[in-house]
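WARN no homologs supplied; continuing
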Amino acid sequence: MPVIYKYDNDGRIVVQVWNARVLDPTLYSAKDNTIYKYDAAGDRIEESYTSEDYSYKKLYKYNDKHLLIEETYFHREGKKPESKTSYRYTSFDGKGNWLEQIGHVTQYGPPAQQIMEPVVRRKISYY
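OK structure emitted
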């Protein structure tokens, strides 16, 4: 499946199109494309996916150290979020890189529920 990537002047991906025949997704019926937006600090603040039968949007928030602290998921064109994940970091290495991230997921809807705490652990090797 052909995939086209478009980057901004800072080398960040801003558009990803699957099954692309042209770079402009509006000319290809907006099939299977993801658009990314970034803030002035270079952190990804929005991801919007669209295909013929499915779409979603994710909004991201960061702390002053550029660590992801919140991810909010919207299904289709919904104005209310379907879920929100808050992140906290419990372990860092000597260079300040996080080694453990714990997410707290809240599902909205009748009734709202706390469903899980995904944990990501990573090991960084320096050469």
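Strands lie at 3-7, 13-18, 33-38, 44-50, 55-62, 68-75, 83-92, 98-107, 113-116, 119-121.
OK
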